[in-house]
Batch of 2 targets.
Target 1
Amino acid sequence: MKQSVRNPFVANSLILGIESSCDETAAALVRGGREILSSAVHSQAAIHAQWGGVVPEVAGRSHLQKIMPVIDQALLDAQVTLEDVDAIAVTTKPGLIGSLLIGVSAAKALAWVRGVPLLDIHHIEAHVYAATMEHEIGVYPCLALVVSGGHTALYRAESPLEMKVLATTRDDAAGEAFDKVAHILGLGYPGGPRVSKLAVDGDAQAFDFPRFRSKDGTPGFSFSGLKTAVLYQVRGQDARAPTPAPEDIPRRADVAASFEAAVVDVLIDETLRAAAREGLTTVLVAGGVACNSRLRREMALRADEVGVRALFPSPAYCTDNAVMIAGLGYEALAAGRTADLTLDAASR
Ligand code: KG4
Ligand code: ZN
């Protein structure tokens, strides 16, 4: 359906961002790609906790209930109305298809009603953009490490909208490894923040857990061997033995700290090696695991030692949010990359 769209691009465009790819329903208003006016997030963590992970069907239903209230909240917090919005940016991929479609449908309906451009946003590119929003401009070209529950990969980024994959994980994502180890340690879901909190009281050198490095030196990550090592440490040689009660797990904090140190070491080693290979001196670290304080601290230190600058988003913009969607939406609008009402969602 053809529709006349007003207002192609102005320097301080106000963008409404919408995110619903996994278990957060989020909306945000950002002006000029940087000025954050509001960020509303409804987390489904409590809903999924009873299942120990995200249940797609349950996620979709919750997004449907929350999408309009969350958008209204973001508009209210920013003290603007839909009339003030110049374009609508929405995550279309990757993610849970039923969840993505709810955000995409809402964005299309609002863009149609208002006659404003629709912007097609890639969730991973948006995570990376989040690391640039609170810093000065001029970070490109750079290396980007994305560490979330669903992804662990290194990219070479020429600009906010041009990223090339350099390395990925061969098995689990880093966040997934945190979530699985949290389960082994009886910490519940979501695991990353709980493992990290327990690790504060532990000795990171107590256990020498394996750090993956490919035999032929090709770049990439792997966390399944590490997870298995933690499992054997906690349950003994019989991995099928029943999970001990959390209070019966010996040296739980030491296990958490040693596991966290192993993940962080692998992420930093691989990232700094890739930066050297690519001749890049700026590293952007993004995604939920970028909240991890050990990763933030150690990456900053070790990058500095080799003349590399490491930039992280504030913790609130590491996990899923719509600020990053509206921010990258501004770049898409500036580049003339607008979408029409045939816009669709894709799981990958
Ligand atoms: O980016 P995100 O919100 O969702 C995805 O797109 O996957 O990332 C969520 C992941 C979860 O696996 C969670 O356990 C992990 O990020 N995470 C952390 C921390 N906070 C969140 N992992 C380690 N330390 C943390 N502080
Ligand atoms: Zn994410």
Target 2
Amino acid sequence: MCGIVGYIGKRQCAPILLDGLGRLAYRGYDSAGMAVLTEGKIQVIKAKGRLSVLEERTKNGTTVEGSIGIAHTRWATHGEPSDVNSHPHISQSGKFAVVHNGIIENYRKLRTFLTEKGFTFMSETDTEVFAHLIEYYYNGNLVETMWKVMRKIEGSYALGVLCDDYPDSFLAVRKDSPLIVGIGEGENFIASDVPAILKYTKKVCYLEDNEIVVLKKDNVTVYNADGETIDKEICTINWDVASAEKGGYEHFMFKEIMEQSKALQDTIHPRIKDGEIVLDNIVLTSEYLNSVDKIFIVACGSAYHVGVAGKYVIESLVGKPTEVDLASEFRYRNPIVTDRTLIIIISQSGETADTIAAMREAKRLGGRVISIVNVVGSTIAKESDEVLYTWAGPEIAVATTKAYSTQLACMYLLGIYMSQKLGKLSDAEQKALVAAVKALPEAVEKILSCRENVQFMASRFYNSKNIFFIGRNLDYAVALEGSLKLKEISYIHSEAYAAGELKHGTISLIEDGTLVVAPATGERLFDKMLSNIREVKARGAVVMAIAAEGNTAIAEEADYCLYVPKTHPLLTPSLTVIPMQLFGYYVASIKGCDIDKPRNLAKSVTVE
Ligand code: G6P
């Protein structure tokens, strides 16, 4: 979704802003722009389309003078992608320029109010309201004015504001949308995410809701919601620019697929000590866990698919009723949450609007929230009661791979941790399970080394119109993710079904030659799965199974079979997902799709 970068310092800012926007492009966007203060006047350059339009127009920023500026990549919500709807938006007199990520919910009311006061709107955006409202209330003091404006605005925003009365500073504020402040030497930054500024500084502070920051080149002042200046903790980012670059790979997605073994190792290994799971930041006592009568897992997108697998894992290891829900549903359905409810929130970014709202609702109702998050310092990481980080490193491709895998690993770690506390597993069971978790990175590496088999399957099926994924239990959970991976980047229609549900409708869609991907690693339900494979084959389907090494029975039924190493029955999704990710990737690659930035999608969905 929209990306924001702002700079103040001694250097020419336009090239820095463009570079920063480029590093936020992964978030998804359809237009871009910047506002730069040049000799006391605000200059705005903006255009629909890729950043290259802006780069060409400004010769990579070199033709724009000035060392204070704010810039933006827009992902359209109010009004189509167009030059005029692109950000920055300026106020009526041109005194203020704003860039905004979020949604102003009461913008219609404010638009009417401002129109009656004589303001003329140029765009269809909600953001323009911000620019005019600041001008309307401006009393010569921008910070005071912002408080007044913030009281009038309902909705979410990360906002950068440039004012021509302030030639040596600019202002930013956030509420329910991510924004970080980068602290440099004689220069300071704002950005929606760390990669935008990492080339210049590793020191960042995370703004909280309703905090205003005023940036000058030599200092940064943060005001809290009561108007007091506050000292913010400055954190040092522990990864470098190279981690957020392609490093010779053609696509971020492929790089991130290939990084999964290492990411799993970083997430899993430090948390295993003497055959036990040790989670430093999580303190769930046996007493508390015994009191828990319900567990919810809540998330969006692929993180939700981790939750679907997590339900099987937690119920089997912890023995507590576990419900998995989409955050956008959970937040509005009056969930039954009490102080005996444990809520597991999963989010790579920690900034997904629906997931944040679901977490807050769960807390409001008295539940205890543990989050599984990748981005340190993100809203969910900060607001949940406890956080278990996925040490996946920066994930840039819109279609998640290594974050999914590490979230799943965290789900196992959490499940085993809770079962330890409750004494649910025998010593031998515990030992076997922990050893299997520890061996996951190596098993993933082995699958990745055989990727040519998947590439061959992709070359065979990239022209498909429809592809179905079927599975049972954990194989069903991972089928959901395999199907999503394929459809989101290759634009091939795909659906995942619980194999036992096929006969209730979906089987009517199977035609001669339809590809059905059938993960069949579950031993307990293997025979039932074989029956489902026979059923679709009898109707003309071509079946590509995914099974554990050594399973010869499957080869007799399926047309093709991809093998993954054998593992503990609860851990199979961690391995089965790898060929599915590769399949989606290779299909999209053969079709020439924009793999890292699929159409209409955004990495971090910061609006509802
Ligand atoms: C977007 C991304 C998905 C991700 C989902 C939830 O749709 O494209 O890859 O699974 O958001 O994001 P989160 O950051 O909360 O995990």
